[in-house]
């Protein structure tokens, strides 16, 4: 199962370390949660940050793996 990675911008921060992320050329924001390594190292993600997201195969959810 190959996951694709996309670069996007955090649009909204939600409870439970979840975020709405918008991608260039896409109108619908995607719901993404914070990856384990980012939680472990206490990396903060705020609205307006550019992030790298690993997308699920269906493309509706993702996981924030890096802050750019």
Description of the molecule:
With 68 residues, this protein is mainly beta. The protein has one domain (5-67): Nucleic acid-binding proteins (OB fold (Dihydrolipoamide Acetyltransferase, E2P), Beta Barrel), CATH 2.40.50. It has one helix at residues 36-40; strands at 5-14, 18-23, 30-34, 50-55, 61-67. The N and C termini lie far apart (25 Å). The mean pLDDT is 93.
Question: Could you give the topology of this structure?
Answer:
Blueprint: E1 5-14, E2 18-23, E3 30-34, H1 36-40, E4 50-55, E5 61-67
Parallel strand pairs: 3-5
Antiparallel strand pairs: 1-2, 1-4, 2-3, 4-5
Question: What can be said about this structure in brief?
Answer:
The protein has 68 residues and is mainly beta. The chain has one helix at residues 36-40, and strands spanning 5-14, 18-23, 30-34, 50-55, 61-67. A 5-stranded mixed β-barrel has the order 1-2-3-5-4.
CATH class division: Mainly Beta
Low-confidence stretches at least 5 residues in length (pLDDT < 50)? none
> What does the radius of gyration come to?
11 Å
Summarize model confidence as the mean pLDDT. 93
Number of individual domains: 1
Structural class from helices and strands?
mainly beta
Biggest β-sheet: count, sense, barrel? 5 strands, mixed, barrel
CATH homologous superfamily caption: Nucleic acid-binding proteins
The level of helicity is under 10%
Tell me the overall shape.
globular
- The H/E string reads EEEHEE
């Amino acid at each position: 199962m190959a996951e694709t990675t996309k670069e996007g911008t955090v649009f909204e921060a939600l409870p439970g370390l979840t975020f709405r992320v918008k991608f260039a050329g896409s109108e619908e924001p995607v719901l993404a949660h914070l990856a384990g390594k980012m939680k472990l190292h206490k990396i903060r993600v705020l609205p307006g940050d550019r992030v790298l997201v690993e997308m699920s195969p269906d493309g509706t959810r993702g996981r924030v793996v890096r802050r750019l």
